Amino acid sequence: MNLQISGLQKNYAGQCVLNIDSLTIEKRSFLGIIGSNGAGKSTLIKIIAGLVDASSGFINYDGEKVSHRIQQNMTLVFQKPYLLRATVFNNIAYPLIIRNMKRDDILTRVKEVMKSMDIEYLQNQKAWTLSGGEAQKVALARAIVIKPSLLLLDEPTANIDPSSVLVMEETIKKFHQENKSTVIIITHNLQQSKRLCKEVAFMNEGQIVEMGEVDNIFNDCNNPLTKKFIEGEILI
Ligand SMILES: Nc1ncnc2c1ncn2[C@@H]1O[C@H](COP(=O)(O)OP(=O)(O)OP(=O)(O)O)[C@@H](O)[C@H]1O
C-alpha cells in the first residue's frame, strides 16, 4: 500500500503533538520510525491505522481516503498485545473468520503461520495464560495471517528475550519478502531498525526531522539532531 500524508496535525488540549507537512511512503517500503519518548511516533501510526482522528490534514491510501475496505487490509501490532479471551488457535483464526474465509482455508492458513513461527505447541493454550513473549508472537501471527498490504508495528519486540526477538524479526522479514506489503515499525532498538528496515525516519517533537535509506541515516545523516540521537546523546 502506498501512503501519502499531507498537512497532518494532531493536537491534545491545544498542544500540537504531531505536525507532518508532507510524507510519502511508497508501496513495499520497509520503514522504521525512531525517536525519543513523546516524539509522536505512536500517534502517527494510530492515525494511519484509523484508530485516532487527525486534528487536520489527510492521508491517502493507494490514492483513496480511508475506508472499511482499506482498514480491512491493514493490521497494527501494539507493544502490549491485545488478545481475545480464547485459545491461541482461535485468536489467530479470528481475523479470517470475520472475513468469511472457508473453514478448510482457515485451518491451512493458521497452521502455516503457527508452523513458520514455531508456535504450534501453543495452539490450544488459552491466550491469557501465555508469557509476554509468547503473547507477542501470537499477536504478530494474528496480524500477518490476513496478509495485510500494510503492516504497522508499534515496538512489537519491546520486553521480549533475544531468541523471541529473532523469531519475530525473521517472521516480519519473511512476511515483507513474500508479500507485496508495506511495513512500518516503531522501534527504540536502533540495531533492530538497521537489521530490518530499508528506510528510517527520525521523529522529534511531532515532526519528521530526517528520513532516508538506513545506511545514509546511520552513517551520513544531514541533521545534527539525528546525529545526536543515533549517537545516544540526550536531546534537550
Ligand atoms: N490520548 C492522549 N491524550 C493526551 N495526550 C496524548 C494522548 N496520546 C498521546 N499524547 C501525547 O502526545 C505526545 C506524543 O505521544 P506518542 O505516544 O505519540 O509518543 P511516542 O513517540 O510514541 O512515545 P514513546 O516512545 O514513549 O512511545 C506525548 O506528549 C503524549 O503525552
From TrEMBL:
Q: What GO molecular functions are on record for this protein?
A: ATP binding
The stretch of residues making up the signal peptide is none
Q: Which UniProt keywords apply?
A: ATP-binding, Nucleotide-binding, Transport
Query: Which PROSITE patterns does the UniProt entry name for this protein?
Result: ABC_TRANSPORTER_1 (PS00211), ABC_TRANSPORTER_2 (PS50893)
Q: Name one Pfam family in it.
A: ABC_tran
- Domain ABC transporter stretches: 3-230
- PANTHER family recorded for this chain? SPERMIDINE/PUTRESCINE IMPORT ATP-BINDING PROTEIN POTA, SPERMIDINE_PUTRESCINE IMPORT ATP-BINDING PROTEIN POTA
Name of the molecule in the record: ABC transporter ATP-binding protein
According to its UniProt entry, this protein's organism is Alkaliphilus flagellatus
